Every structure is written in structure tokens, then in C-alpha cells.
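Review box. Two proteins, two foldings.
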Amino acid sequence: MGQLIYSMVTSLDGYVTAAEGDIGLGAQDEEVHTFVGDLFRPVRTFLYGRRMYETMVYWETAHTEPDAPAFVVDYARDWQAADKIVWSTTLQEPSSARTRIERSFDPEAVRRLKARCDHDLTVDGPTLAAQAISAGLVDEYHLFVTTSVVGGGTRFFPDGVRLDLELVDHRTFPTGLVWTRYRAR
């Protein structure tokens, strides 16, 4: 059975997008990218909301950029090899291989998908993740916390949901970025 992981970069005050400006993404360097690539290499299925998919589809062609460093090429190849499921009512066609579009989120379908997988899955994007969290589908939470406090925006965790989590791992990077991994109790 696959584990469903929700992971995003978040500001120190818990926002994945800021009301104004960015959330301090400057902390993403080669060391962080390599760590993320190694961490999520076993993931073979990505569950996306439309906006997150439109951001991540960059990896479909990132390996073709002139002078792309090896860690970028490696991550792009891993991303391309994985299946992608995108929930969208507006997206007509996928922009990447191994991708299908679903029109409405069905928690039971995701539960069945997890049950038959022999690999982990991720749910990416705060809106889709909120639905998965509310349905009790998320097994692990990986937060990459920047050193910025942004004061508002879109939160990592949805309002109205109580979670009791167990810290199972963490790492700090020289840039000040902190990765924490929590498991649902």
C-alpha cells in the first residue's frame, strides 16, 4: 500500500503562497534540489491541482535547457517517469506524458489508488491537499520551511482540520531552510 505524502515549501508562518511577493524561495540551491530529488525519487504518482501542475510541468522539458546541471536533469527524468493525475474543471489537455485529467476529486478513488500502489504518492498544491487532508487520506507531511515571515496568503494546512502529528525526521540546510517530516498518528 502506498503512502500519500503532502509536501511544499512554506514560509516560517505557514504560507505556501504569499499575499504579496514570494515566500523566500531563494533558499533552493543545489543541495536542497538534490535532497528533494533523492527524497521523492521513489514516488511514482503525483496528484496535482491545476495550478500546481502548471508550475510543475516545467520538468517535462527542463532537461533540454542548455547547461542544465545534473541535479536538474536527474529531477526532470524522475518527474517524467512518474504518473501524474491532475484535478481540473478547466484544463482540456495535459502538457506532459503519463498524465491524465480528472474533473472532480473522489476520496474513495484516491483511497483505492493508494491501496493498490506498491509505491508512494504525493498530493501537491494546497487546494487539492486540503481536500485530501479533510478526507483523512494524507499519511505524511513534508514541510520545507523558509526563513521568511509573509503575514498572509494561502496556508499549508487548511482551516477547520485538527491533526495530531508525530515528528519522524528533520534536516537543516546552510541557507536556513528546514525540512520536517511528520506522520499522521
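Next protein.
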Amino acid sequence: MIIIAAIVVGAILGARAAKKRGGAIADILQYAAVYAIALGIVATILTVLIDRFAL
């Protein structure tokens, strides 16, 4: 669940960053995808660490 939330938040943040820089539709989609992938990877690592070290 954390991973899905991170992907959605990443896509939103990426789209907002591209819009702020005046990007075209392709730029907005690319930023959204890259941010979503990056935050998804971070969330996956955090999920594994939490699961590994949870009591």
C-alpha cells in the first residue's frame, strides 16, 4: 500500500514540476513517470527494511 501511494504522489509531484517549468504534455508525462518510478523504488526499499526489522 505504501508503494502505490508513493507512485501516485511521485506522479503528481513530477507533473507539477514539469508544469512549473513550462513543459509540454510529453515533458509532463515524462517527469510524472520518472518521479513515480523513483519514489516507487524508495518506497519498495523502505517497505523491505520495515518488514525486515519489524518486531
